[in-house]
Amino acid sequence: MLRRRTELKSSRGTVWPPKVLARLRERDRRCVGWVIGMPGLCAGELQPDHVRASGGMGMKSPSTLENGAMLCAIHHQVKSLNGREWRPKLIDYIEGRAA
Asked: N or C, where is the chain less crowded by C-beta within 10 Å?
């Protein structure tokens, strides 16, 4: 069987709606990694992070206030490498801030 190969579209990266990003920054104000007990010092640029998994390869989870948290570059990497440990704690943080 012959396979046809096509070029993949380049990713535009994650785009957060400006209003959501502004509310996320206002809510968190700083890296929340240390708030939930992530190891290591905060370092690097503050970044919005999708807390919940997307559910599929190549899919992106929603860029909403209920699915985001501000993390420094170090804690963003910690969460990415150990999502099963840190996602539930980040979700608890988000739900606690919404109350």
From this structure: N
